[in-house]
Amino acid sequence: MARFTFFGGKGGVGKTTVSAAYALRCADAGEETLIVSTDPAHSTSDVFEQSFDDDPTSVEGRDGLSAMEIDPEAEVEAHMMDIRREMEKQVSQVVVNEIDKQIEMAHETPGAYEAALFDRLIRVMREEADDYDRVVFDTAPTGNTLRLLSLPEFLGDWVDRLIEKREKSLDLYEKAAIGTDEPRKTAANDPIIHRLREREEKFEFAGRILREESSFYLVLNPDDLSVAETRRAVEHLGEHDLDVRGLVVNKVTPEPDDDENGRGARYLRERCARERERIAETEETIPVPLVARIASRTGEVKGDVLGEVADELAIDVAATP
Amino acid sequence: MARFTFFGGKGGVGKTTVSAAYALRCADAGEETLIVSTDPAHSTSDVFEQSFDDDPTSVEGRDGLSAMEIDPEAEVEAHMMDIRREMEKQVSQVVVNEIDKQIEMAHETPGAYEAALFDRLIRVMREEADDYDRVVFDTAPTGNTLRLLSLPEFLGDWVDRLIEKREKSLDLYEKAAIGTDEPRKTAANDPIIHRLREREEKFEFAGRILREESSFYLVLNPDDLSVAETRRAVEHLGEHDLDVRGLVVNKVTPEPDDDENGRGARYLRERCARERERIAETEETIPVPLVARIASRTGEVKGDVLGEVADELAIDVAATP
Questions:
Q1: Which residue from A8, A276, B39, B275 has the least number of CB within 10 angstroms?
Q2: What is the tally of structural domains in chain B?
Q3: How many CB atoms lie under 10 A from the CB of residue B273?
Q4: Strands A134-137 and A33-37
Q5: What pLDDT shows up at residue B59?
Q6: Residue A276: inside a domain, yes or no?
Q7: What's the confidence (pLDDT) of residue B80?
Q8: Smallest CA–CA distance from B271 into chain A, residue
Q9: Which Pfam families does the UniProt record give (chains A, B) (predicted)?
Q10: Domain range enclosing A18
């Protein structure tokens, strides 16, 4: 059964709040649930007023709910150290020192952050997920991460051709030379081919989980920019065969009372009218159902307020993974 | 005299509105002004209710003001075509076809967009800028673009070493061989060294203009995320010796009238209180003066409303470039 749920959307739309509210609904429905946050601002710790780290921990006072926070920066560091160690095995110390600078630079490339984070999320799906019925992520793959999902195909062909060439040259080598099987052994254990196969298998696993055992929701706010970005995200996910199950409009401005008529009330009414237009546009132009509208709150969402948001979220937990 | 002004900030904070209002102030103060927009949503065309393209065009009804809109996507295309043409000169057609796929992929890398856009902005500073007293950009360099400013140093050393090695091998070649000066001629015209020198010179020019003839302002909204991002942007610009002259807080929620007391008024008062906290935090923790607070508007900013925003902006045009 599908059991992973991802809440995507641009920074600031309220993904963490919505994912926390959804995870709470799952736990309240009797599902053992893990919420995985990737927000470097530790907003999940804020929501539950409890500090989380890289290990799943029970959320106090919320039966059936655990949380973990992944620090993307720490993941990038670890990722780079892995690469360095791998290289040290294969080249001399002098080269390693030269290469360190390159790694430093690669660390700063825009893709490094996403790649390291995706690696960690795949590890959650493989390891931590085993102890739970549901795993809720406050992020969804975008841009470069989605492109990684096409890697297995691409990488598979490439590795096959690489091995084929390798075999041919080994055949020639054996025919030409000394009757030892030393070279063939080396090919079977070739660390580079081994790593490529490993990556191929890893992204194949991720693609399968994302396509067959996961649901995606996108969180947006009722403004032009957020609607346009959501439209692009739905298309982009679709191009990678990932279906978006629903849209959640968050931070909807509340209407004033009917008898309010001052400057503030006029401002709010105009603002609400604009937001209704954006929401209508969303429903007309994005082919994904709008599953919830959540009111804007002036205070932080935590404690009882999270329960209120969970009530407004109203995604049928039983029907969706 | 300094004459370039950049308005930076994350998508959605209102950079285009603020830059348009500032450009209007410059033009009204008697400076021949060009506003350069890089927003793919053509918001500058919306603000002035007139369609702009890649060529500077006078804004109707606004004396001394011209506008142009750069399409970053088109710039990436052109950039990639340039690279392709350059490569075709140097390798066989078979290799070009193989390489086309690589270019296709490079096109999608996150850095390509920024690099192509920065190239075009440098061209504006070199060419279009000549006809104006002031040039206002609705964007400021971030991330990878800032890193390009360190390229001249890095590239300079590298090219010097490359040429030195080249000279040495040519010396050996000449000592060893036939008395022709053919190889030396080739080195002087080496297309790769030529292009590296060109890039070195280009980014050197950009660095000089940005450090000596430009002012930077950052636009933010009074919320946690925007304040945190602005703090990082100020630090990042500072690391590259670019001083931020001022912060503009945009989309400040208006207070209700004193005698309003309904649900709407209560919501607005709480919201305004939260925003005041964010603004106080900004002033306490970011070492850059807050030069303007602009009220949130429910309708689109254009026509007379732009004039109102320009009045609220109140940056002294004469004192700043």
A1: A276
A2: 1
A3: 12
A4: parallel
A5: 97
A6: yes
A7: 75
A8: A298
A9: ArsA_ATPase (PF02374)
A10: 4-79+107-146+213-313
> Which of A150, A268, A296, A302 is the best residue to mutate to test the B interface, defined by the most B CB atoms within 10 Å of its own CB?
A268
Mean pLDDT for A167-177 is 72
Q: What is the model's pLDDT at position B17?
A: 92
Amino acid (one-letter) located at B315:
I
Q: What is the dihedral of CA A95, A100, A105, A107, to 10 degrees?
A: 130
- pLDDT surpassing 70 at residue A53: yes
pLDDT higher than 70, residue B110: no
Tell whether A304 is covered by a domain. yes
Rounded to whole angstroms, the Cα distance separating B227 from B284 reads 11
Residues 6+ apart with CB under 8 A from A82: none
Q: Which residues of A touch B257 (CB under 8 A)?
A: 262-264
Instruction: From residue A164, give the alpha-carbon distance in Å to each of A104, A129, A193, B308.
Output: 34, 37, 12, 70
Report the CATH number at residue A30. 3.40.50.300
| Chain A residue with the nearest C-alpha to that of B300 | A274
CA distance B238 to B236: 5
* Local structure of residue B138 (DSSP, 8 states): S
Upper half-sphere CA count for residue A218 (Cβ side, 13 Å): 30
What's the whole-number mean pLDDT along residues B75-87? 76
- Residue A254: which of B41, B228, B267 has the nearest Cβ? B267
A96 Cβ contact list (under 8 Å, min separation 6): A84, A87, A88
